[in-house]
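Here is one chain, start to finish.
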Amino acid sequence: MVTFKAGLPEVLPVRGGVKSITINRLAPARLGQGTHQGVDMKIDILFWFYTEFKACAKKLKKIRSCNKDARVFALYGGPLSETHMARQVVNPYVDDFYVYRHEKEPRWKWENGEQILADWYLERGQHLPWETIFIMQWDMLISAPLQELFSGLQPGEILLSGFRPMHEVASWWHWANPKNPNLKAFKALLRKKFHYEDELAVCLFIVACFPRIFFEKFVGAGHPEVGFIEYKIPTMANMFRIPVCHKHGFHPWWGSDPTTKNAPPHQRLLNATGQEVPLSVILKEFSKNNGQRLFHPVFRHYPKWMENRYIAVILYYLHRSIRRIYRIGSLVKEKV
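Its structure:
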């Protein structure tokens, strides 16, 4: 499952044009440059996308503007027929462009996204300079520098939103059903191949930061396809004894949790159900000093000036007033 089976191409499009390179163009980053040595830990970006190329370009331009020292690598996992267009649109904003060249159904890509990430690492990522990488999904809205968002992340740690032991979700999360054949096969694999029988861990794969060592070990273990990404990655991270970062504010909404099923929109700032975070909720967060600055999903691009706290307050109340007027108008229309 590789993209360029003969290695990196002779001519690789990079930010600012096309550049002839060799496989050793970029040396792997060295560990030891993080906060434990008194230096701010560098976090680079893997931008994972497959659609809405123009919106993606705007989001990339924005993320680069507030993370000027971060390298941005693109991972395209959409239809191969649209590869040229995808590359052309986002190329000015990325330092590397990788194409997942296997035709798979969208559902397979969703359930087995770690296979796409493993391919990226095998064919490209291991040759690029990074120590910790943030997986930025195309439908995220980010309005703060990564150093602020991930200030609690330490070198060598993995960060996965919603990380928790599987028993906490076993009664209501479909993927944790002990009768699920995929789960049974994954447990059997862990037991037979790795002699691992500890409790599984789970996450909602929305916000994720990986240390290089995770991919080294995951690929070295054969990056098994069996299992589901949202318990495979956290469980294998535990198996590899990679420390997990808990010092963050990324607490996703689990749509199938009966205790929070009817949670209001402002508690669904990070969700994996496809429910776009409403503009009113985003503006309310922007109006707060310490409001949320990462949202998912947000399919459209919003201009940076909306993030100004005082402008956000005005827009929030204006937006709410317009909605009230619209509702009143609808009620009057119904009575007439």
